[in-house]
Design a protein that fits this description.
The protein has one domain (4-47, 68-308): Rhodopsin 7-helix transmembrane proteins (Rhopdopsin 7-helix transmembrane proteins, Up-down Bundle). Helix 9 (233-271) packs antiparallel against helix 10. A two-stranded antiparallel sheet has the order 1-2. The protein has helices at residues 28-58, 65-83, 85-89, 99-132, 134-140, 143-164, 166-170, 188-226, 233-271, 280-304, 306-316; strands spanning 183-185, 277-279. It contains eleven helices and two strands. The protein is mainly alpha-helical. Belongs to the G-protein coupled receptor 1 family.
Length: 331
Amino acid sequence: MTLRGGEEAELCYPQLLNSSCRKIMRPHSVSMLIYITLSSISVVTVVLNLLVIISLCHFKKLHTPTNLLLLSLAFSDFFVGFLMAVPIMLIEGCWFIGDMMCTVYYVVSYIITSASVGTMVLISIDRYMAICDPLHYATKVTQSKANLCISVCWVSSAVFQCLVLRDNIKQPGRYNTCYGECIVVVDYVAGIADLLFAFIFPVIVIVVLYIRVFVVAVSQARVMRSQVTAVKLQGSVKVTVNKSEMKAARTLGVVVIAFLICLLPYYCVTLTGQDAYINSSTAAFVISVYYFNSFLNPLIYALFYPWFRESIKLIVTCQILRPGSCEANIM
């Protein structure tokens, strides 16, 4: 195959000639910069989220319903770190590992995305209960209930996304137009269902709950300021608890906002109707933006949570290998 002017086109599979997809031609320096940047983000994402997982699993003081939700989010972010290898492979616009792996990649990425959105909804509900109904929070929100909600979230996400991509699962690669391409097709009804149940409805729930949390937090802050001169022990304890809960709400609010910002580009493409055919090479940017959120989350924890910084020190120095280290008070 030749281009105008006699310049030879680079093919994904040169031996297949006209049936092969063409590579995306970039300057070598640009390709190397993209490779190094995405590879570094991928490795750091895996390492940081592994630290979060170890921290939340190892230290008993961190075994709370809220942290179980963070653990679920960390697991999805951990796997996203590995999935980032796909945009790295697609820099040249060629898919070399087969139609089955193409379908597996999209199914797994769709499930993780859906489960992450569901986890964000659960985090919003948790913060709403903690701030707006603190007297009943301990009885209504327990570790067993949190585990159940997380399990339902992941299972329902897997079932729903397998239904959305059912045609691609039945016949991988059926929509490819050339060798070296990775395309999945979502029909109109399934696409609308995915948009509604995996983005629009969850976002509405998250925004409404956090607006309510913000309003209640502001009113509580005013009450605290009016009672700041109180010297009763009971009042002092109450203020401490409320401050702790609101700090957690603010931190998780940052996590939720960062998540929505990173997820928005993909669903903007969906809303404008440009994703009838989701081509791997052209979708690499919006996918990478979403994946970047998994890199941000541990950094947010490190910035706002002292326990995470303390746990990193204990993990890096191998002090968690000492007997009884799981009982350490890192709060």
